[in-house]
Amino acid sequence: MNIETLEFFGAMAGHQRLGPDAMVLRGFALPFVSELMPSIADVEAVSPFRHMVTPSGFTMSVALTNCGALGWATDRRGYRYTAIDPESGKRWPAMPDVFARLANEAATAAGFNDFDPDACLVNRYLPGARLSLHQDKNERDYEAPIVSVSLGMRATFMFGGLKRTDPTIKVSLYHGDVMVWGGVDRLRFHGVMPLKEEPHPLLGSQRINFTFRKAG
Ligand code: MD6
Ligand code: FE
Q: The Fe2OG dioxygenase domain covers which part of the protein (predicted)?
């Protein structure tokens, strides 16, 4: 299929381009939700959600856990990927098959073939939680895209440029939306505005985000 035809079918499906290599696939995760939910409980049972501390000593309002061979962690010493959950002292739980399948299919739909993530960061937002503007740059390989899945309450995502001071656009991310970005957009600053309480019929007053990466 040529690029115009791909773009046309993408637009028909409600896909929204945010940059040359960044797009939102509206509702792409919906067919996976009934399989994803019990898998979140499995992950949480091994490595519970926790509030980590940033290198500057700030306790994050977002609670997080991980699955996969590598997990993202932060403490006073810095940000890094670890094979061991610092809290449990054990490996992060394995990435459930359905997670890896969703990530791979979303990447393909956005034009990135053969995405094989080794890390899945799972973020939980309660009302008021936010994520300040940042770049994702702890991964070894910037060639692979990042695939980010939103479940539950709506979030207002801020998407900026390559400099912190560049203007940002705001995009609502809804239950089932998947963002894929890579290539020239891979290092763009981004964040999440404080979550408003708009309870979701399935997840209640929370938002869950999975962020898949090739970290190692
Ligand atoms: C979130 N996401 O959506 C936080 N990073 O809750 C991220 O920080 C993020 O969504 C890189 C790529 C996509 C993302
Ligand atoms: Fe990020």
A: 116-216
